[in-house]
Design brief:
Distance between the termini: 115 Å
Strand content: 25-35%
Structural class: alpha+beta
Strand order of the largest sheet: 13-12-11-16-15-14
Number of strands: 26
């Protein structure tokens, strides 16, 4: 940084420098005979002799040790003859110690032509320290990759180092004396000068200030970190400003990549918690769309092959065949009409082989269109109106991901960017593929579960009586509601036993799915066969317990009741089942406690029997635990609620059954079987 410029031509001459003060340069004058003629205060500080003690004394006698006097006189004669001498010479301090003093000497002539010797002296140790500091500063400034610039108080360049020349792309001589805005037009120089003025005014440094722009050294946009420091001398006088500049483009890019990687991990972790919370196909698709918007896309659509939704099977798309999709979810990051460009949720759409979505499922590979034009939009949207809506929304980048699970394509995830100006890239594709893969497994699980649930539900319904047969003297209503998740093994039945006698049964096989439904069918069939023998309830349950034990690791609960209208009573036995509710014609209702009894399949325990009066107008309710059991609540709460509702049961049993289901289990998480029987008045 050798150059120097200033807007004030008198500033260099008029401004005293601080370097001489730092060196504490002293002056001494010797006359022609070697006596001390002039003695400055600085030489007094350096050597300790006062002016009164030094003046008119021979310099060699006072200041030079005997061993060095010959050399001192030789140098004095050399300078008196008109020569010059510079170097380090040891002088004697007043305290008797030797001091290394660096000299610059010259001959002076008085008006009579008599020679005098002027010596400018300073402590040699101080000079060496300053030299080392200057050399170090010079090396650092010129060799550091950090760009360094010095400005005067008018914010004009005073000097720059080679690193800043490379950053700016401008040599030092082209910037000296000019303001920063006259040289670097591709930067926000107004903001830079505002910072500079702030530092000059306050003296407080500004560190790591960010600037993004272009210089002559690089036509690309780059990021710079700048630090500003005010320069002052030892007396606190402001000399100007120093600025250090570091190109941090790569660092910012690396930081941005790390931040993006963290964001991607966060999105993946979020997806792990939010996708697949249920085994419902449509809910899983909605969860996927909600995860990718707005973290990854501005618009998202999830379309699944129609065969997956309608039949639970996967029919691959091959050759030039079109693809039939069912739209399951659409999401947008903001309110926009472009959301209507996607296929309406729930509708079926057919796309030809040339369409991007068909290409995606046929190849089982992502389709990335970084820059979408109006022609491409017509290949993406379902029709011209949808393409126009996407274009008006600013759709400029498209990414489609196949939903692949267990080696088979289930559908696609389609993503658009509209307000996000950055087009999709390979990193976005990688993240979206990870999300699509996770979601595809959840969707396939939902497909498999739905197929199994459909099978179990079909089997369950086929084994239950379509409607309880009408019985003499009894009004009967039955309800079965499958769980929203897995179908269980709940069942009910009404059995004709003989004149005036009717058997009632409600049971619950432990477990879920097809196996539970199949076991339920076997137990239901066995119950019907045993009921034909008109066995007492406890004996029937004993036989049923033996049959259950032969079915392997199976447990079921059951309550069996025989209504005898001639006697006006009802006999009940229970195999670990919840107590029935008996509502009298007077509007009271109570739980019927049936003694003893363990679940079917346990074996070795006798079943008890209780007999209750079944007066005209009395109502008996048999049910499974799905009606009254709720997570987080005691089952006693559900039993109390059921009893209270039956106290005000309407004469119409069908309405009573619907009311009980609506009040207790509008969306059951377990199967519900309910049997209501009222003796006619």
């Amino acid at each position: 940084m050798s150059g120097y410029a200033t807007s004030d031509p008198d500033a260099v001459a008029g401004a005293p420098g601080a370097l001489l003060d730092l060196l504490k340069v002293a002056a001494v004058v010797l006359d022609a005979s070697g006596h001390i003629a002039l003695w400055s205060p600085e030489i007094e500080q350096l050597l300790g002799w006062s002016a009164e003690e030094a003046l008119r004394q021979r310099a060699d006698t006072l200041l030079v040790a005997p061993a060095d006097r010959a050399r001192g006189r030789e140098l004095f004669a050399q300078v008196s003859a008109g020569g010059r001498w510079a170097g380090v010479f040891p002088l004697r301090h007043r305290d008797g110690t030797a001091r290394a003093v660096e000299f610059r000497t010259m001959r002076l002539l008085d008006p009579e032509g008599q020679p005098h010797l002027l010596g400018l002296a300073t402590d040699a140790t101080t000079v060496r320290k300053v030299e080392r500091d200057l050399a170090l500063s010079h090396s650092l400034v010129n060799q550091t990759p950090l760009g360094i610039a010095v400005f005067d108080n008018d914010l004009r360049w005073v000097g720059i180092n080679p690193a800043l020349e490379r950053i700016n792309g401008v040599p030092e001589e082209a910037v000296l004396g000019r303001r920063i805005g006259e040289v670097l037009t591709g930067l926000d120089t107004a903001a830079i000068e505002t910072r500079m003025r702030h530092v000059l005014r306050t003296g407080s440094p500004l560190l790591d200030q960010q600037t993004v722009g272009r210089t002559a050294g690089d036509a690309r946009y780059r990021a710079y970190s700048e630090s500003y420091h005010r320069i002052e001398d030892i007396d606190g006088r402001v000399l100007g400003l120093a600025m250090a500049v570091l190109d941090v483009t790569e660092r910012q890019q690396a930081a941005a990549e790390v931040a993006q990687a963290r964001q991607h991990l966060s999105v993946i972790a979020d997806a792990g918690m939010r996708i697949g919370t249920t085994l419902d196909l449509r809910q899983t698709a909605r969860e996927l769309a909600d995860v990718v918007v707005p973290q990854l896309a501005d618009l998202a659509a999830v379309d699944v092959l129609e065969s997956v939704v309608a039949h639970g099977t996967i029919v691959p798309v091959t050759g030039g065949a079109p693809a039939e999709f069912r739209a399951l979810a659409v999401a947008a990051a903001y309110r926009t009409d472009a959301i209507h460009a996607a296929d309406p949720v729930g509708e079926v759409a057919t796309y030809g082989s040339s369409r991007m979505i068909t290409r995606c499922v046929r190849s089982a590979r992502p389709v990335l269109v970084e820059h979408v034009d109006s022609r491409m939009l017509r290949r993406l949207a379902r029709d011209a109106h949808a393409a126009q809506a996407l274009q008006e929304a600013g759709a400029h980048s498209y990414l489609a991901l196949p939903l692949v699970a267990r080696g088979k394509v289930l559908g696609t995830l389609s993503l658009y960017r509209t307000v996000n100006e950055r087009p999709f890239d390979a990193r976005d594709q990688l993240l979206a593929s990870e999300l699509a893969a996770r979601a595809a497994i959840c969707i396939d699980n939902a497909r498999l579960y739905g197929r199994e649930r459909g099978t179990a539900l079909t089997l369950q319904r086929s084994l239950l009586p379509a409607a309880p047969a009408a019985q003499e003297g009894l009004d009967i209503a039955a309800r079965y509601r499958p769980a929203l998740s897995e179908v269980g093994g709940d069942w009910y039945d009404v059995l004709r036993l003989g004149p005036g006698r009717t058997g009632l049964v409600v049971g619950d096989v432990m477990g879920k799915g097809v196996q539970a439904a199949a076991i339920m069918g076997q137990l239901s069939t066995a119950t019907r066969a045993l009921a034909r023998l008109d066995l007492p309830p406890a004996e029937l349950l004993r036989h049923l317990d033996d049959i259950t034990g032969s079915l392997g690791d199976t447990i079921a609960t059951c309550v069996y009741a025989v209504c005898d209208l001639e006697r006006g009573v009802c006999e009940l036995s229970s195999a670990g089942h919840l107590p029935p509710v008996l509502a009298g014609p007077d509007g009271t209702a109570r739980l019927v406690e049936v003694p003893g009894g363990v679940p079917l399949g346990v074996g070795g325990v006798e079943f008890g029997t209780v007999e209750v009066e079944l007066a005209p107008g009395a109502l008996l309710a048999l049910y499974t635990d799905g009606l009254v059991e709720t997570r987080g609540e005691s089952i006693d709460t559900g039993l109390q609620t059921l009893t209270r509702l039956l106290e005000s049961a309407t004469p119409n049993l069908q309405r009573t059954g619907d009311h009980l289901l609506g009040a207790l289990r509008p969306e059951p998480d377990d199967d519900v079987a309910l049997l209501l029987v009222r003796r006619r008045g």
